[in-house]
Amino acid sequence: MRNHIRKARTEKHWSQGQVAQKTGVARQTINAIENSRSVPTLELALKLAHAFGKPLEELFQLDDMAHKTVRRESPF
Fold it and tell me: φ, ψ for residue 61 (rounded to 5)?
C-alpha cells in the first residue's frame, strides 16, 4: 500500500507530532506509516483523512501487485 501522508503533512506545515496528536497515536506511528514500515488500521486511516480534510483514496492507494489480486466480482 502506498500513502501520501508525508505530502499531506508537509502541505499543512505540520510536524509528525502534530499529526499524531490530532489522531491520537504516537509520533513514531506516523513516522512508521510515512516510511511504509506500518499500515494503519482502518480507524486510523479514517482519522488521518479527516485530519487532513482529504478523501481516504487520496491518501492511500493499493500498490500495483496488491491491486491485481483484489477480486472484482462477488463469488456469490
Answer: -140, 145
CB atoms within 10 A of CB 23: 19
The pLDDT of residue 63 is 82
* pTM (2 d.p.): 0.82
Q: What angle do CA 2, 31, 22 make, to 5 degrees?
A: 100
42 touches 11 (CB < 8 A) = no
CA 58 – CA 50 distance, rounded (Å): 12
pLDDT (0 to 100) of residue 64 = 72
Helix (H) or strand (E) holding 18: helix 16-23
- Is it true that domain 2-69 has CATH number 3.30.70.1450? no
Distance between CA atoms of 73 and 25, rounded to whole angstroms?
36
Q: List the domain boundaries for the chain.
A: 2-69
